[in-house]
Amino acid sequence: MLLEVRDLHVEFHTRDGVAKAVNGVNYSVDSGETLAVLGESGSGKSVTAQAIMGILDMPPGKISGGEILFQGQDLLKLKEEERRKVRGAKMAMIFQDALSSLNPVLSVGEQLGEMFVVHKGMSKKDARAQAVELMDRVRIPAAKERVGQYPHQFSGGMRQRIMIAMALALEPELIIADEPTTALDVTVQAQVMDLLAELQREYNMGLILITHDLGVVADVADNIAVMYAGRIVEKAPVHEIYKAPAHPYTRGLLDSIPRLDQKGQELYAIKGLPPNLLAIPPGCAFNPRCPMAQDVCRTDVPPLYEVTESPAPRSSACHFWKECLHG
Amino acid sequence: MAEAILEVRDLHKHYPLTQGILFRKQVGAVKAVDGVDFDLVAGETLGIVGESGCGKSTVAKMLVNLEKPTSGTIRYKGEDLTKLSPRALKAVRRNIQMVFQDPYTSLNPRMTVGDIIGEPYEIHPEVAPKGDRRRKVQDLLDVVGLNPEYINRYPHQFSGGQRQRIGIARGLALQPEVIVADEPVSALDVSVQAQVVNLLDRLQSEFSLSYVFIAHDLSIVRHISDRVGVMYLGRIVEIGTDVQIYDHPTHPYTQALLSAVPVPDPEARAHRERIILTGDVPSPANVPSGCRFRTRCWKARERCELEVPLLAVPAVYRLADTPARHDSACHFAEEKQVVPPEESLAHPDPLADGPAPVEAAREAAEGPPEEPGPDAAPPDEPGPDAAPPEEPGGPKTL
Questions:
Q1: Can you give the pLDDT at residue B391?
Q2: Side-by-side strand order, sheet with A305-308
């Protein structure tokens, strides 16, 4: 297994109290696999990713428990120096907003080349040549001429390609893409997702795709982990989950999106609001919004029940997953 | 069809690009909106879709008079808004209200919800006499599904979805006939989006509103719209009913746009033919000659460079009785089904092995449209030459 997150807990200490952003997350990704982490804002999907990358702001953040095993090694036990060698070289991250992730006063060539200068000790000239090659690889036209240009001279889609190039620079084994196409238009989104999928195949990388878009997930993911209030509520292969969700939250999400190929009547809407992380409801965090909630849901936190073991493992954190699956 | 409540003709908005500090001279223009025509019929929802920079928000702002058009007319019940006196304009504007995209920045953080929703009454006191306002605001809160007791709270005490409800309540305050909603749900979480979309649906029937619904999310636009206009670089390239646009698109841009939308159905992965456009949208300051989509179009030929295609029913379909018969601004308009019909996907048979389901879907996608109803004639029946070369006039309401 390339990456294994075990029982990860992250909290933020704020003036108003302790916000429990991640409450015992378990997931794993293998080489060549695409795991989609699906969730709404505040579900803890990005915080988990930041903890894996080691770029969590601490304080106010604090990893209060768990392990992050990368190729068998617990990243949380490494010193910052050792961690830095892993970050960028072995795992890299692509952020949502390419414009604010790039430095506006450095040319893209300098920023791409920096990876080689810092990690591989290359000369600036060699690094620039590498930068051109990278830009070619992510299909930026006229890379040679554009390598000296600044981020604002590129369009949104091109900037996101530069971010991808930067992530790929040292040929990492794991890429975490946090909402990589959310800021892009659909036609450009399709280009960028295609590129990402192609490069992943080419390098046989593990990919963690963090998104709230059920459409993007259906297009590219192998497996899905659905997060709610800092926990994984359902984990399944992509085909299974869309066919028959085993958690009422997943079901609600799937029912609440309008479809391109049909004009529905009224949309199903999940009632209520996502919970406040300072005061997560006792029992199952989803119980105040759940149409199936019973007394036990208000008192007992549901464990991740095993739904099926083979051919692909599938699990759901709902006391009534059977009813949900067949209802 | 009922009468048009809004008629937009040849609408332009050009922002001048100037050079020099002391002697500013105009060196060009950003053509944000460059000739847009459409009608809005009373009680209907017209969706406008397009990518960022296509001018859809600028159109919205001109409809509610937040921007002055460079040229063109906007008629509300026959009155041209661009030529009205300030006093007459104020009276008309009451009837066209706007709901903005970002519920976080479109509400003043220092005003209570009651003041925000009641502010329109300061400008149009005839709608609600002073003593009556508080009750009206509470009614509005109730209508949009918020607790009327929240009237003294501030925007930061509400979640994104609730704030958007406040924005909608403010839009409704003056009992308008038309609501222009610019990306009203894009900033919201998926589970909250559906609540707001349903609210907009309900309010429409309750108050017989007409909507201009602007969004980049094609699935939501289909859900809520009766008719849809697709914009590209300042112009509408195709307009028609939701079935015409989504199931029978004839403009290559619409086809590419639809095929690029990720469908939340992994089974569709194999069935879907995707058209991936190359490159980016050109700058509106430097619009390509002829057809503005030609730089990204796989069908582009010489004619597209020389001749601007008009928004009209393509000659091939002019006499045909098919859903492909709707306005499309392409010289080589041709129907192509890019969204697989739902029958082939609704019940994918996981047990059927091999390529059988894929074959079936492809056949369904390429074959003649299987629309229910008597008017489902094969699309290509009349020869293309039979169509008279009549010059298209203004836009048609379909």
A1: 40
A2: A91-94, A174-178, A206-211, A34-38, A223-228, A231-237, A314-316, A305-308
What percentage of chain A has pLDDT greater than the value 70?
99
- Stretch(es) of chain B classified as CATH 3.40.50.300: 4-20+33-225
Q: Do B280 and A188 touch (CB under 8 A)?
A: yes
Query: What residues does each domain of chain A span?
Result: 222-260+267-327
Q: Is the CB of residue B257 less than 8 Å from the CB of residue A186? A: yes
CA atoms within 13 A on the CB side of A130: 22
Task: Fill in the amino acid letter for B45.
Answer: T
B277 touches chain A (CB under 8 A): yes
pLDDT of residue B358: 38
| Chain B CB contacts of A213 below 8 Å | 262
Residue in chain B closest to A214 (alpha carbons) equals B264
Look at residue B1 and tell me whether its pLDDT is greater than 50.
Answer: yes
Over residues B37-50, mean pLDDT: 93
Q: In which band, very low, low, confident or very high, does the pLDDT at B367 lie, cut at 50, 70 and 90? A: very low
φ, ψ of residue B338 to 5 degrees: the values are: -110, -25
Neighbours of B52 (CB within 10 A): 13
DSSP B316: G
> Which of A191, A242, A261 to mutate: most B Cβ within 10 Å?
A261
Contact present, A73 and A174 (Cβ < 8 Å):
no
Render the burial of B109-120: b for 16+ CB within 10 Å, e for the rest: eeebbbebbbeb
- pLDDT of residue B77 exceeding 60: yes
Q: What is d(CA B204, CA B104) in angstroms, rounded to the nearest whole number? A: 24
The DSSP string of B179-226 is EEEESTTTTS-HHHHHHHHHHHHHHHHHHT-EEEEEES-HHHHHHH-S
* pTM for the model: 0.80
Nearest to B198 among A156, A187, A269 (CB): A269
Cβ-based neighbour number of residue A16 at 10 Å? 9
- In this prediction the ipTM stands at 0.77
Angle at B117 between CA B113 and CA B123, to 5 degrees: 135
Q: Identify the closest residue of chain B to A191 by CA–CA distance.
A: B276
Looking at chain B, the number of H-run helices and the number of E-run strands are 13, 11
CATH entry 1.10.260.40 includes domain B4-20+33-225: no
Name every chain A residue with its beta carbon within 8 A of the beta carbon of B348: 243
Nearest CA to CA, how far is A48 from chain B (Å)? 19
Q: Are B326 and B392 in contact (CB under 8 A)?
A: no
Name all contacts of B131-139 with Cβ < 8 Å and 24+ positions apart.
Answer: B136/B173, B137/B113, B137/B169, B137/B173
User: Which chain A residues touch B261 with a CB distance below 8 Å?
Assistant: 186, 215, 260
Residues in chain A: 327
